[in-house]
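Two entries, shown back to back:
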Amino acid sequence: MKFCGFFDLLSVLLRSSQQGPLVEIEPKGPIPVRVGQDLEIKCRVSKPLVYCRVEIPNEGALVIQDPSTLPAENIRYIGRGLDKGECYIRIQNVKESYNGNFKCSVLPRGSAYEGSASAKIVIAKPPQQPQLSLTPSSSGRPFYKKGETLEISCNALGGSPNANVTIYLGDEKLTSEDSPFYHEPTGNDAKLDIQNVSRSLEWTDHGREVKCVASHIALDRPKETKVQLDVHYPPQPQPNIERFGYVIGQQGVVNVTINANPRPDFTWIVDAEEIEAGRTDSSNRLQTSSAYELGKGKWSAILTIDSVQKSDTERDYRLRASNEEGTYTYEVKISTSSEAPGVDLDAGSIIGIVIGVLILILAIFLVIFARATGRWCFAGGRTSRNIGESDIADPAVTVNLLRFHKPKTDDASGRRSDTESAGRYSRSEVDSTGRRQRRPKITFSQLFKRNKDKVSGADTDTVRTNVTVDDEKQTTETGKADKGGIVYAELDLTQQQQQQQARRIDEDKTEYAEILYTKPEAEAQTPDK
């Protein structure tokens, strides 16, 4: 058994040694080539060659031992040399007879067996004129009707390799994909490439061309066959027709264009009077014309008004169009006013307007925010406050209320009272120290709600005081007892708003109040340097 296995292995080695070398060839696979073009055949192995042989269909075998001397005039060696294992040739001006298999055989040095490889070359042959066929109409007549299904078939015969065919309806491509570019020929004739499609016809298909287009490597430009469709359909609906720009006292022409096939018959109906095409009305002021063809199912109907009057713009105009497929009546209105130009905004204009509005809204919001918080250009711009304004910017500042009688001079020299001449501090002086303190956070609701902040007497030592004439004595005494002439008071705006009668400014007992901002105590106690 061991001897049998040894002899089997020896026989395999002997058979493998008798096989030729592996040959690589280009091109790989079937390649179409046009008549008159150049063709390159490249064979190579990994060993130096003694010779190479190329078999050309219908020409015989070309043996190459010395690349510098080749017998054929249209064949050249283009490799680096046989010692590099390359057998490269270029065939100039390919003939139609070269169609078939090119076989390349090589003999490496030190080998007794040749190696070979083949490449299939297809000499391109242009196809015949494409053939286009349409299924007949259901009526058997040489036209189709709207909604009818049309079957279309297209083929191109005689091409080698096979031609690519495509079906078009006008500029619309009907075939979902092209046929394969190459098909292997069988026998003397090339295989036939056929495309079939179906379509439900619309009225817009009337006058369009069905085209069968064949493209091929052997053609400089595609070949095509086309047929124009004839589709019958009734007059197509339109929205109300309006015509503008008529001038009183001048001739007016009402022109209406409709789509219909075959040719329609027109009848103008003005109020209750019917006017056939090519005739006039009972007053001989209105003249109609026959249908005028504009092409591809478009027809023009014209009504001429001899001299336009104001009453003509108030009349009812209707146009009735009818053919063997149906009837439709169109409403027509005329006017002496000029047509108002429509505003046509594209997508870019709309986007620009939206962005502009958003930027405007953002700018308004920022102005309100800066105004309410005293930021940016509004920082430090306010030097006083109104009665009842909430001190959300700096709650640490104390608000004092000084109350005094109507200004009077103490003597003939014209000096003012001590109360009136009391020292005052500006808001800027007070804020100079208050700004070093932490600023409170501001919520969104504080920007828009009415300020109703009050100084709570429970949190501070400030005495709650209502500023009215009735409690004049009580307020003054309390203020003097606490702060030596300075009354710390809370303004209750609610009670002030509830007073029914406002006091007149010119009364003798009119009292004046002024809100002053005092400096912090730490700054007041600091001696001057």
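entry 2 starts here
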Amino acid sequence: MVLFILLLNTLLSTSHSANVLVIAGLRGSHLYFSTDIADKLAEFGHNVTLVTMFSDKKVEKEDRAFRFVTFGDEDKSGPDMDYWRAVYEHSIHQPSKDMMPESLISRGDIKEVKMWRDDYNSVAQNYFQGKEFSKLLDTGEIDLIVLENSIALLAMVSLVHRDIPIMGIVCYPGARDVNDRFGQLALLNSIPSWTNDVTNSPPTFLERLQTLVKMVRFLTTFNSMIQSLVDKTMEPRANIEDYFTAIYDVVFINDHPAFSFPFLSPPNSFYLGLFNLEDRPLKPLPEEYLEFLTNCPYKHTLLFSFGSHLQNIGTFSITPTIMETLHQLNACIIMNSPFDLSLHYDLPADKFLQRAWIPQKDLLGSGKLDFFISHCGNNGRMEAIYYNVPLLCIPLLGDQYYNGRLVARNGFGLVLTRETLSEQTLTETISKMLAKRGTFKANMKKAVDIASNDPGSGTGVLKFYTDLLIKNRNVDYLVNRITLNQSFIEMHNLDIAALALIFIMFLSAGILFCFGAETCPGDIGDIGDTAFGDIGDIGDIGDIRDIGDKAFGDIGDIGDTGDVDV
């Protein structure tokens, strides 16, 4: 079946059939997003190989139009899971506003997390610098590499010295990291990001200061993380600068401004919009779901899922509050939870349907759900928007609070943080969700219509630049080499600002000295003599032309050109 699809795509495609290597994100949403890209590139008629470190039964069991290769040893996946579990355990207890920076900072500051990080990096380095991966690059005649952004830092040790065009793909909303990679640091206090709480209004001075402090902490930790990677690289050895410069020829972001925010981004970055949803036919719901929804004795139906990262939702501090509120709700609830919640809670069969895995896209597209209680991961956010199912976001970790803010900003739903969640606030928020459901759905439908008809995003643009990269091996006409060769200080003229500040400080010191001197203000020229040496009697008001003569030569006659004697 897979061979037939590959053959058919090759025959129907008008573009050159090339060998494309997709280096996927390691797990969860990053891996599934990578497989969606691989599917689409295979539809374009290319020979696609997707590689990942560890196997994934969900990806492998489905018929795919590409080759799926696992190079890593599943027995060595322990450090990977232990590392992320330690990151989640730390960040899940941080204030919601700080969940993303704290999850990153913990990787360098928290001893246990740092230990697991080092083990994880060792496994990853062995993977990307191992014989199997190198052999694939050396003998595979690769025309294009597609690199998922979350794995880029680890993979780059094997890619930085190779002359193969690279397409970056970013799983989360916005273009912040894309800007950073191209030397264009984002305007931290002018756009929503995980370091601030900006939505539509400019932040206060204190908020801007707090953002700066977070960034300093993060960059300090990040620098040590990168250095640990550089220290472990084999020949040819990468250097730390390689990790901070543009490694992508073109970048595609799993988002659209109509769904998030008009982020500033480099000319070679584009939005994927709804590329993996528009042409995907919905599958009929399994019989157990249809029977549950058809026989529901309650007024409403909703979906409740906190994704794949939180394996044991039963230990989460707000779970009892959520479950008690859902029990009292006049609704049937479909729940996605790897952990069996019936061990701790009464789950009547006519009210709750719990499964370790659910057909989320098909449920959201069934038209039978009133709203979706979600942790607000980016894939779920995009799916809910496309199928017009309002979102009640309860962020847990990582970029989820940031995603939730974008949902609320665009009128797609509401956000409830762990700090504000109680039976009362959850009940009230659900009531608001139901009351404003029509408005939320209308806003989603409008945004989907914009993204679907945007000629500058989506599948068409992905195909165009895929073919262009394969043909020309670069898109240099879209890359600003000036910013790549400028430091942050030069780009923002901070050296000039610093020089001006020093001058003002010396001038201020001279003025203060003048006020304490007996000759002041009779001979102001002594200010310059005191602060800078003998630069002329600036203060001799009687012959102000001497200012120019002493500083620049005889320029007093400039005025003779006209009728004014300077």
